[in-house]
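Apologies for my clumsy wording, but are you able to produce some protein sequence, whichever is easiest, and the C-alpha cells describing how it folds?
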Amino acid sequence: MVAEVQTAQNVWPMLAPVVFVPHAESEYQRLVAVLDDLIDVVGENENHPLASLMEVIGVLIEKYEDEHVPELTEI
C-alpha cells in the first residue's frame, strides 16, 4: 500500500485541479464543467479508463448539491 500512496503523492499535483471537494459555488461549477467534458469523452462506456473518474466527480457534485442546493417542493 505504501507504493500506491507514493504514486498518488507523485501524481496528485496533476489531479488536484480536477478531483477536489467543492466548497463554493465556483468550485461546484468547475466540477460540473469537468463532468460535462468527461461525459463527452466517456459517454456510456463503462469500460472506458475514465469511467471511474466520471463516477467520482459525479459523487462529489451530488454531495455538494445535497448540502447546498435546496430541494424543490411539490405543490
In short: The longest helix spans residues 25-42. The chain has a mean pLDDT of 94. Helices lie at 2-15, 25-42, 51-68.
